[in-house]
Amino acid sequence: MVMKMIRSVKALFSSKYSKQCVWRIKFKSVLLLIAVVTFLYISEMINHFYEVDFKKFQYPLEGNIEKYVMQLRDNKIPSKQPINVYKYEYITDCLQKCQDKTPLRLVIVIKSAIPNFERRYVIRRTWGYEKRFSDVGIRTVFLLGNGNDTKLQAKIEREYLLYRDIVQANFTDTYYNNTIKTMVGFKWAVSKCPYSKFYLFSDDDMYISTKNLLRYVRHPTKYPEYLTDVENTINNGRLKRMKRQLVDFDLPDGIRFYSGYVKQTSPFRNRFSKFHMPLEEYKYDSYPLYATAGAYILSKDALIDMHYASLYTKHFRFDDVYLGILAHKIGILPYHSNYFHLFKVKYSPQNYEYIIASHGYHDPEELLQVWNKQRELGSA
Ligand SMILES: *[C@@H]1O[C@H](CO)[C@@H](O)[C@H](O)[C@H]1NC(C)=O
Ligand SMILES: *[C@@H]1O[C@H](CO)[C@@H](O)[C@H](O)[C@H]1NC(C)=O
Ligand SMILES: *[C@@H]1O[C@H](CO)[C@@H](O)[C@H](O)[C@H]1NC(C)=O
Asked: What top-level class of enzyme does the UniProt entry assign (predicted)?
């Protein structure tokens, strides 16, 4: 369309056309111009011109909120009242999950939806399996909101009695309430299960290799090379290849680690997009760096600080961007890993050797097959 416009404008200034023809072309290009501008207006894409440079980023509550986060962490009364509290009541709270206060390695918090019974069933038997490793403490819960189907709700209650792994709260379970779901998960983890070193947040349509995830957090900057590093040593004049020791590294306590597939994107101003973002809601030309929502991992300190930061940060509809805003406001830089995949990675044993997360497992049957295969091969 743009090319056509340029061509007709060029044609306007070219002399080889007759007068009548020039008029016709002029009329056509004016029409085209009107159409383009109208489209920009109707779709609100024109708003790109009114965006503010991200360098000027401020997001309510403006100013330094780290002070209040520290006060809350230290169990002090914060010098300023929170501006954003997710006040939802638990319908089921899984209080017994972490009641024994055993120090854990990993808590897996899965955003699910009410009708996804089969996905939960398979996840409990694959990457959510708490007893996967005899020497690694893992706990798994599913997050749900409130539906409006009493039959389904009765089924959820039976599921809860059977597995005791559903955290359900009284917000309406819809796509645009994703941030509420996520922050209910943060709040639950901080208040009901704070004895773990790491927290994985994930969707219920993911393939996750719990084994690779645990390897990753041992040495994020060297994953997966540290697993395969070989040393060449000369021994009695002969070249010998040795595997390096794997066990001498772990993220130190107190580190605020927030990692996944990290992106920086710009708001969609097109009104017809699912991700449409009006200027009134967010005026900058870019979002802060964030880990995309499918799967990301946090150390305990990142979890706690981001939870408290949310109390001083205005609600935002997209949960992953919201977490990016929280991290930005308290100076946590998300750490990117190529082994978290936003899209489905075509299955082959080699492709999945080091994968931590792959999106696109809507079919629980397929997840079960792929996961079992990779488990046999020692990489799930
Ligand atoms: C959730 O429960 C709380 C406490 O009972 C109540 O104040 C709130 O209005 C409820 N919210 C919804 C959306 O039902
Ligand atoms: C509630 O019911 C309506 C009508 O059946 C449906 O369109 C809507 O998606 C339901 N909402 C939830 C949260 O299940
Ligand atoms: C989100 O949940 C709240 C509380 O239940 C509800 O009032 C609101 O309509 C929901 N929003 C959307 C977009 O579904």
From this structure: transferase
Characterize the bridge pairing of strands 258-263 and 357-359: unpaired
**Contact between 203 and 294 (Cβ < 8 Å):** yes
Mutation to probe ligand 2, out of 112, 148, 156, 178 (largest number of atoms < 8 A from CB): 148
pLDDT tens figures, 276-329: 899 999 999 999 999 999 999 999 999 999 999 999 999 999 999 999 999 999
pLDDT of 10 reads 58
Looking at the domain assignment, is residue 208 inside a domain?
A: yes
Residue 44 belongs to a domain: no
Asked if residue 3 has pLDDT above 60, the reply is no
Say what the pLDDT of residue 46 is. 77
CATH number at residue 259: 3.90.550.50
Does the residue 22 lie in any domain?
no
Q: Tell me whether residue 1 is exposed, middle or buried, using C-beta atoms within 10 angstroms of its C-beta: 0 to 12, 13 to 18, 19 or more.
A: exposed
Q: Which residues line ligand 3 (CB under 6 A)?
A: 171-172, 174, 176-177
CB–CB of 261/294 below 8 Å? yes
Structure tokens at 197: 């070193």
Ligand 3 mean position to 172 CA, how many Å?
5
Q: Which domain holds residue 325?
A: 66-376
Reply yes or no: is the peptide bond before residue 224 cis, omega within 30 of 0: yes
> Closest residue (by CA) to atom 14 of ligand 2?
147
The answer to whether position 56 is within a domain reads no
Number of domains forming the structure of the chain: 1
| pTM, entire model | 0.87
